[in-house]
C-alpha cells in the first residue's frame, strides 16, 4: 500500500519539526514548509491526502491558502493548527473550508488521531478523480478559473457557487443532503435557512437550464436535499 502523503505548513520550527517527525514515525510521507506561499506551491506540484495549515504565517496566511485550495479541490482534508483558539476563530477557519481545527498548544496524540480519522473518512467518501472542468447539456464549467458557459453565454461563478456545483456534480444522480452541502460549502454547523441553498439552486437553473421552471439538471428533494442529473 502506498504511503499517505501529508503537507504541513507552519512557521514555528518548534511545531513543524516534531510534528513532521511523529507523522513520519506513523508511516506518512511528509512535505514540510514554513509559509503559506510555499504551501500553495507544494500543493500545485504534488497530490496530498491531507493538508495541515497554521493560520498565522508569513507571505500568505493559512486562511488564504485554504481558500485557494478549496477552489481547486473540495475534498482533500484540511486541518488548521492555530494559537487563535476562540470560538469565533474556529468558525472563521471552518468557514473557509477546513475540515477540522486544533488550537495550540495541542496534544500530539490527539493530532495524530485526528489525522488518521480525517484520512480514513476521506477515503470512504469518494475514489473519483478530482474534476477541473465539466460539460453537461450544452453548458461548460471550468472549476479552477470559475468561468462557466450557460444558456446566456459566458460568466463567472462565485466561490460558493463553484463549490456547490462541484459537490453536486461529484455526486451525480445522488441526493446530497443539506447537512452535507453546508458542511462542505459553508464549512460550519450553524446552518443558514433552507432558502439559502434554494437560492443557489434557482441561480443554477437560470444559468444552465433552457426552461428554469422545468428543471432537467437541478432537482430539490423536499425535506432531504438536492440532486444533479446530467
What does this molecule look like?
There is one protein chain. This protein is of the alpha/beta class and 230 residues long. The chain folds into two domains: 5-125, Response regulator (Rossmann fold, 3-Layer(aba) Sandwich), CATH 3.40.50.2300; 133-228, Winged helix-like DNA-binding domain superfamily/Winged helix DNA-binding domain (Arc Repressor Mutant, subunit A). The protein is 42% helix and 22% strand. It has helices at residues 13-25, 36-45, 62-72, 87-95, 108-125, 159-170, 178-186, 194-208, and strands spanning 5-9, 29-33, 50-54, 78-82, 100-103, 133-136, 139-142, 147-150, 153-156, 175-177, 218-221, 225-228. The strands form three sheets. The chain has a five-stranded parallel beta sheet, sandwiched between helices. Strands 6-7-8-9 form a four-stranded antiparallel beta sheet, with no helix packed on it. β7 and β8 form a beta hairpin. α2 (36-45) runs parallel beside α3 (62-72). The two termini are 35 Å apart. The mean pLDDT is 87.
| Number of self-contained structural domains | 2
Number of strands: 12
Rg to the nearest angstrom? 19 Å
CATH superfamily membership of the largest domain, which one? Response regulator
Q: Runs with pLDDT <50, length 5+?
A: none
Strand content: 15-25%
**Alpha-beta content class:** alpha/beta
CATH topology of the largest domain: Rossmann fold
**Inertia-based shape:** elongated
Rounded to the nearest angstrom, the distance between the terminal CA atoms is 35 Å
Report the sheet with the most strands, covering strand number, pairing sense and barrel closure. 5 strands, parallel
Succession of helices and strands: EHEHEHEHEHEEEEHEHHEE
**Mean pLDDT rating:** 87
Strand order of the largest sheet: 2-1-3-4-5
> Helix coverage percent of residues?
40-55%
Count of DSSP H/I helices: 8
| CATH class bucket of the largest domain | Alpha Beta
By CATH, the architecture of the largest domain is named 3-Layer(aba) Sandwich
Amino acid at each position: 500500500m502506498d504511503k499517505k502523503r501529508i503537507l504541513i505548513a507552519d512557521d514555528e520550527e518548534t511545531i513543524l519539526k516534531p510534528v513532521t517527525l511523529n507523522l513520519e514515525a506513523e508511516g506518512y510521507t511528509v512535505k514540510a514548509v514554513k509559509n503559506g506561499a510555499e504551501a500553495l506551491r507544494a500543493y500545485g506540484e504534488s497530490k496530498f491526502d491531507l493538508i495541515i495549515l497554521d493560520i498565522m504565517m508569513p507571505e500568505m496566511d493559512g486562511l488564504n491558502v485554504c481558500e485557494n485550495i478549496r477552489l481547486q479541490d473540495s475534498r482533500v482534508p484540511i486541518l488548521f493548527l492555530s494559537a487563535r483558539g476562540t470560538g469565533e476563530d474556529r468558525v472563521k477557519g471552518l468557514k473557509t473550508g477546513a475540515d477540522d481545527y486544533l488550537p495550540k498548544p495541542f496534544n500530539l496524540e490527539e493530532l495524530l488521531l485526528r489525522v488518521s480519522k480525517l484520512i480514513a473518512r476521506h477515503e470512504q467518501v469518494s475514489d473519483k478523480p478530482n474534476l477541473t472542468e465539466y460539460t453537461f447539456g450544452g453548458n461548460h464549467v471550468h472549476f479552477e478559473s470559475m468561468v462557466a458557459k450557460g444558456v446566456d453565454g459566458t460568466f463567472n461563478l462565485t466561490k460558493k457557487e463553484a463549490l456547490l456545483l462541484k459537490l453536486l456534480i461529484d455526486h451525480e444522480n445522488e441526493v446530497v443532503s443539506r447537512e452535507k452541502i453546508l458542511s462542505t460549502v459553508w464549512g460550519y454547523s450553524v446552518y443558514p435557512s433552507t432558502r439559502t441553498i434554494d437560492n443557489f439552486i434557482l441561480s443554477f437553473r437560470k444559468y444552465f437550464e433552457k426552461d428554469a421552471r422545468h428543471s432537467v439538471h437541478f432537482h430539490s428533494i423536499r425535506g432531504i436535499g438536492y440532486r444533479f442529473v446530467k
